[in-house]
Amino acid sequence: MFCSYTAFSFIFSFLFFNYKFGRLKLYKTMKYTKEEKQKYFKELREKWAEAKEKSLNDSDAKSKWEAINQEAGGKISYTGFYFTFMDMQAQGLDGLPYVDAKTFQGWLQSGFQVVKGAKSTLSGITWLEVKNKGATADDDGFLMPKEYHLFHRSQVEEIIK
């Protein structure tokens, strides 16, 4: 009896101590229904289609994208650029995507850090190729949109060494 009580007491003390001081992380996984996932991806595809439609008539944004894309070696999608550009305009933020709006890691690589407590308000979309299970060589699979989050230059500060 004494041994089981001591073991229980030890385990409880260990868990309580580590939880109290942030060493034990208890993760709660989010479960989404199939309908919620379908709605989310449908909304992303609709936002992408809207950006694509509006981008066709915006020659000013096209010229800005061409300059940035040339500097980046031709790796930037115009619709992806315009998607984030629309988001920046809607929030009243100045600047250009890929220059004034970057991911957390993008800012770190540029020598800046995100201000503590800052929340990402901008987003972009990239398309990931998904292979079907048991796919043959002829089956290409499909593309799935993935949203990523960006920080504006007003949310960062230079890293001082």
What features would you describe in this structure?
The strands form 2 sheets. Strands 1-4-3 form a 3-stranded antiparallel sheet. The chain has a two-stranded antiparallel ribbon with strand order 2-5. It is an alpha+beta fold. The protein has one domain (31-131, 140-158). The chain has 5 helices and 5 strands; from the N terminus they run ααααβαββββ. The relative contact order is 0.11. Mean pLDDT is 83; it is low at 16-21.
Helix and strand topology:
Layout: H1 2-20, H2 34-55, H3 59-71, H4 78-90, E1 101-102, H5 104-109, E2 112-114, E3 122-130, E4 142-152, E5 156-158
Antiparallel strand pairs: 1-4, 2-5, 3-4
Helix pairs in contact: 2-4, 3-4
Q: Keyphrases for this structure?
A:
globular; 5 strands; three-stranded antiparallel β-sheet; alpha+beta
Helicity level: 40-55%
Q: Provide a count of the helices.
A: 5
Report the average pLDDT across residues.
83
Distance between the termini: 58 Å
Oligomer: single chain
Rg result? 23 Å
How much beta, percentage-wise? Answer: 15-25%
Tally the structural domains: 1
Instruction: Give me the strand/helix succession.
Output: HHHHEHEEEE
Structural class: alpha+beta
> Shape from CA axes?
globular
